[in-house]
Amino acid sequence: MHTTNNLLGTNAAHMLESERQHYLQLHPASAKLAENACQHFLYGVPMHWMNDWGTPTPLFVRSARGAHFTCADDIDYTDFCLGDTGAMFGHSPEPVARVLEQQARRGFTTMLPSVSTPDVGAALADQFGLPYWQIVTTATDANRFVLRWARAVTGRTKVLVFDGCYHGTVDDTLVDVIDGRTVSRASLLGQTVDLGLYTVAVDFNDLAAVERELATGEIACLLTEPALTNCGMVPPLPGFIASLRELTRRHDTLLILDETHTISSGRGGWARNAGIEPDFIVFGKPIAGGLPAAAYGFSEELAIRMQAAKDAAPPGHSGIGTTLAGSMMTLAAMHATLTEVATPTAYEHMLTLAATLEHGLNTLLARHTLPLSLIHI
Ligand SMILES: Cc1ncc(COP(=O)(O)O)c(C=O)c1O
């Protein structure tokens, strides 16, 4: 066994090195751009984590359209990542490109609501089911602000999440469970607060642990994806999310579903298709066709409690909201995406392709008895 592992290791190292050489041969322009960009960007990339992928130098993109992009060396790629769902409906969807061109001549941002505001609200409510909405710039912001609202309206301090979760760079959620204790994730840079003070993490699919924590009466909200999609793919056990809904109601804890990724599972998101009504729901990434935009929705009861909390607070900064969110450009892109791009026909097309991909990959895996499994939400 030992010898086999060594042999596999040697083969893998050999294959990796030959792939790296092949990549460098094919991508001289990307390599040159990387060298130049290093003069002014940390690691030569606009965001440092763009250097985390396995290629010897970052792959620089020239253009993207539909399910393809072209790199600096003019090689065409079929894009299976699609910006981690940001470009889930395809790169540069035509209706979004069209309205952005029109809006670009009529102003980008004013810090005032644009005339399209009621239409965007109606489109969000129509597609996702919840009646009230707020617009933000990223899903990270949406989660961060929803946690604040939850604490403000319940008067409770703690947040319950699942071990292995990722909800963007929201401090409260960047925790791990070590020896049964919730602690700040060791990889965080510049983190000074002990995140375990106000966040508790338990195992996904462990209802008993959830109930134990809710029974303390300290938990303002439970924040989760319907399936964990950022630590591999962990689907919920049958009935798990419905039980979370039932338990959170029983303990007066708010249920927040982060559907930033699971929006891909069906039109309207996973919860709507499963008939589950969360208190808050978060959608990010693709809802403005890939432009930075996100939205959080909430029930009527919550809207009343949120307004009461805001009205009761002294005038001044609420700590919720940013200046560029809800701009004219964002609203225009969001409206076009919701009404012309994220259509039943588009979802039917995507889900049919996903089923074909799943079947093809499973057939391959079965043929080669590889230690891999496939999860399709
Ligand atoms: C489930 C989930 N929520 C929120 C986010 C944060 O999205 P953004 O980076 O656009 O703020 C991510 C990012 O991957 C995510 O996977």
Protein described:
With 377 residues, the chain is an alpha/beta fold. Helices cover 40% and strands 14% of the residues. The chain has eleven helices and twelve strands. The chain has helices at residues 2-26, 28-37, 94-104, 117-128, 139-154, 207-214, 240-250, 270-274, 300-312, 328-341, 344-368, and strands at 61-65, 68-71, 76-78, 132-136, 158-162, 175-178, 181-184, 199-202, 219-224, 254-258, 280-283, 294-298. The strands form three sheets. It has a seven-stranded mixed β-sheet, sandwiched between helices. Strand 9 (219-224), helix 7 and strand 10 form a beta-alpha-beta unit. The two termini are 35 Å apart. The model has no long low-confidence stretch (mean pLDDT 95). The structure holds pyridoxal-5'-phosphate (PLP). Pyridoxal-5'-phosphate is lined by residues 84, 138-140, 143, 166-168, 225, 230, 258, 260-261, 284-285.
Layout of helices and strands:
Blueprint: H1 2-26, H2 28-37, E1 61-65, E2 68-71, E3 76-78, H3 94-104, H4 117-128, E4 132-136, H5 139-154, E5 158-162, E6 175-178, E7 181-184, E8 199-202, H6 207-214, E9 219-224, H7 240-250, E10 254-258, H8 270-274, E11 280-283, E12 294-298, H9 300-312, H10 328-341, H11 344-368
Helix pairs in contact: 3-10, 4-10, 6-7
Q: What's the gist of this structure?
A:
Helix content is 40%, strand content 14%. It has 377 residues and is of the alpha/beta class.
